[in-house]
């Protein structure tokens, strides 16, 4: 009996079709379902073994875990505990674990290795991961490690690129076809140069100068006649990434076209590397975390248990800036001290008007910042985006203005107060729409990351102008409020 399973295969530009894969009963008996490891339980088990001074069993237990789980366990251990385990793991094992860590975590664990040991580990790693780790080392230590490595050449070439660009995260270029090859020769070439099925994403075609001229769909290769040439079946429309392209743009390309990998080319269109989708998973997480932290004015390196001095350095400067914008809003309030003194009930509604404006501005700003980051909008979309958000702000302002105005009237028994609060709410939500769109756009034009500073200026605008609108209207209608 044969069991047929349908599995998706992704090829050119992310097209996906179902492929039938057959398994015999004998093969099915060897298929094992593996439950994900509970990292907290694994960490507790390792710590318990270390407390019993049974380091060998702790190291052996780490070997039974998936490298990703071993990596997480190691990063949560104290430095002295890490050192005990690291010295019992051989270079290939450490290489697998390091490959699952962030650059900062790799550098932290690598401190427990001497130069020769670290060089042995790096020789076992993929060049791009090894380059990431070396970038975290001090220049002198990095030079010593490279000198001790047996295969430093590929890593050295990658170190020449900015680590946040396509060149910094790419792998070495895969063995590539030539257009004059026949299909039969192409099959022989693949069998000779590819040892692992996980290495084959696409087959690229180069000319004699190393320039990328096409890509071959594996299905087309299988179905083609053995005598046909690669040039006859290759696709000349190849999606590429420039070697100096920002890593976030590379991630967007892979996501937009649903690719498993993208070739990296230089200014002469020569193939210099390849970036697989798993190479940008960490990039996506890093960029998302960075943008999230920047919206809250926190360093992208912040962690829940980061050292207190470092946490203060990353957070305090932005708190001081926020205090400055809050002082600006307070100065607006101080202009209307006499109005507030005569109608103290205004203080009850000031936080409502300013708070709702701030919330609405943050909503708009977040959508605009995200759209800019994903390349969904650009400068020329500023006016359409502003018009769209103004319409939403108008409708929100009318709805909330009527609600809060009615509440003020019924609560305080003064219909004029309801009108003042409602109009101020409407005005501040329109301010929020303008600020939420214009601030990120202006920062983008000035080549400042919109995620870094937008929220400070948007909040300053909605607080200051919200107070000015509310208290200005209250001053105009003061005779009906007292």
Number of helices: 24
Could you say what the CATH architecture of the largest domain is? Orthogonal Bundle
* CATH structural fold name of the largest domain: Tetracycline Repressor, domain 2
Task: Work out the strand percent.
Answer: 5-15%
Radius of gyration: 30 Å
Name the helicity range.
55-70%
Task: Please tag this protein with its features.
single chain; 482 residues; mainly alpha; MgtE N-terminal fold; CBS-domain; Tetracycline Repressor, domain 2; 3 domains; three-stranded mixed sheet; 8 strands; 63% helix; 8% strand
Structure explained in plain terms:
The structure is a single chain. By secondary structure, this protein is mainly α. It folds into three domains: 39-160, MgtE N-terminal fold (Alpha Horseshoe); 177-292, CBS-domain, CATH 3.10.580.10; 308-481, Tetracycline Repressor, domain 2 (Orthogonal Bundle), CATH 1.10.357.20. The chain contains 24 helices and eight strands. A hairpin with a 5-residue loop joins strand 1 and strand 2. Helix 18 (308-334) packs parallel to helix 23 (450-476). It is globular, with a radius of gyration of 30 Å. The N and C termini lie far apart (90 Å).
């Amino acid at each position: 009996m044969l069991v047929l399973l349908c599995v998706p295969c992704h090829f050119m530009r992310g097209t996906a079709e179902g492929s039938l894969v057959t398994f015999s009963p004998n093969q099915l008996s060897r298929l094992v379902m593996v439950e994900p490891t509970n990292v907290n339980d694994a960490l507790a088990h390792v710590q318990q073994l270390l407390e019993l001074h049974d380091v060998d069993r702790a190291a052996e237990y780490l070997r039974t875990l998936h490298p990703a789980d071993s990596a997480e366990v190691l990063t949560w251990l104290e430095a002295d505990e890490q050192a005990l385990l690291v010295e019992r793991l051989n270079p290939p094992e450490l290489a697998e674990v390091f490959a699952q860590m962030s650059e900062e975590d790799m550098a932290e664990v690598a401190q427990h290795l001497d130069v020769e040991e670290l060089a042995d580990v790096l020789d076992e790693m993929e060049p791009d991961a090894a380059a990431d780790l070396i970038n975290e080392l001090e220049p002198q230590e990095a030079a010593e490690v490279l000198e001790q490595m047996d295969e430093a050449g590929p890593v050295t070439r990658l170190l020449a690129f900015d680590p946040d660009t396509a060149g910094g995260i790419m792998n070495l270029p895969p063995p590539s076809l030539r257009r004059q090859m026949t299909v039969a020769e192409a099959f022989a070439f693949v069998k000779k140069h590819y040892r692992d099925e996980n290495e084959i994403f696409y087959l690229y075609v180069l000319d004699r100068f190393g320039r990328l001229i096409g890509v071959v769909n594996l299905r087309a290769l299988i179905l083609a006649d053995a005598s046909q040439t690669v040039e006859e079946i290759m696709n000349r429309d190849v999606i590429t990434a420039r070697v100096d392209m920002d890593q976030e743009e590379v991630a967007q390309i892979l996501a937009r076209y649903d690719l498993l990998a993208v070739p990296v080319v230089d200014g002469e269109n020569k193939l210099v590397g390849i970036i697989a989708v798993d190479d940008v998973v960490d990039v996506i997480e890093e960029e998302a975390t960075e943008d999230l932290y920047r919206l809250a004015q926190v360093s992208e390196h912040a962690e829940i248990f980061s050292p207190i001095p470092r946490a203060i350095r990353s957070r305090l400067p932005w708190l001081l800036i926020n205090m400055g914008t809050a002082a600006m809003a307070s100065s607006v309030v101080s202009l209307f001290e006499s109005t507030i003194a005569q109608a103290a009930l205004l203080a009850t509604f000031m936080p409502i008007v300013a708070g709702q404006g701030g919330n609405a501005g943050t909503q708009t700003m977040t959508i605009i910042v995200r759209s800019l980051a994903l390349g969904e909008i650009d400068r020329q979309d500023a006016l359409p985006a502003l018009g769209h958000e103004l319409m939403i702000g108008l409708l929100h302002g009318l709805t909330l203005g009527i609600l809060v105005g009615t509440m003020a009237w019924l609560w305080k028994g003064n219909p004029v107060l309801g009108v003042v609060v409602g109009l101020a709410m409407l005005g501040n939500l329109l301010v929020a729409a303008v600020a939420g769109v214009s601030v990120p756009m202006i920062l983008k034009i000035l080549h400042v990351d919109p995620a870094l500073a937008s929220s400070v200026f948007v909040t300053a605008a909605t607080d200051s102008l919200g107070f000015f609108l509310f208290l200005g209207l209250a001053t105009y209608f003061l005779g009906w409020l007292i």
